[in-house]
Write a structure and sequence with these properties.
The structure is a single chain. The chain has helices at 7-10, 20-55, 106-109, and strands at residues 62-65, 70-76, 80-86, 89-94, 98-102. By secondary structure, it is an alpha+beta fold. The chain has a single domain (20-109), classed as SH3 type barrels (Roll), CATH 2.30.30.30. A hairpin with a 3-residue loop joins strand 2 (70-76) and strand 3. The longest helix has 36 residues, at 20-55. It starts with 6 loop residues before the first helix and ends with a helix. The relative contact order is 0.11.
Length: 110
């Protein structure tokens, strides 16, 4: 009956390295640091900059929306901004969709 039992199963298993637990902890900490510096921190920085941009909007600013529409701010409310995209044409957007503030005179230069 010994032909059904492999001799490799009867051999003793090699002992684990004594520092294997420490390596796993260092690996997890390293992975956490990589996640923090390459994913979470840059995203939090962009969100903070966007929040400051939205809070600093004022009448007369030239902005571009997330959809690529360029306009001049004519009116502001708590949640919305009205942009004049051409002479006599105004569009209403949510403030969150303002992507960037443009330098003064950009619209005239286009």
């Amino acid at each position: 009956m010994s032909f059904l039992i492999s001799p490799a199963l009867a051999a003793d298993a090699p002992a684990a390295a004594p520092d294997a637990g420490m390596f796993n902890i260092i690996f997890l900490v390293g992975f956490g640091l990589i996640f923090y510096f390459f994913m979470w921190r840059p995203q939090a920085k962009r969100a903070k900059e966007h929040k400051n941009l939205i809070a600093g909007l004022a009448k007369g600013d030239e902005v571009i929306t997330a959809g690529g529409i360029i306009g001049k701010v004519t009116r502001l409310t708590d949640d919305y901004v009205v942009l004049e995209v051409s002479e006599g044409t105004e569009l209403k957007f949510q403030k969150a969709h303002v992507a960037a503030e443009l330098p003064k005179g950009t619209i005239k230069g286009i």
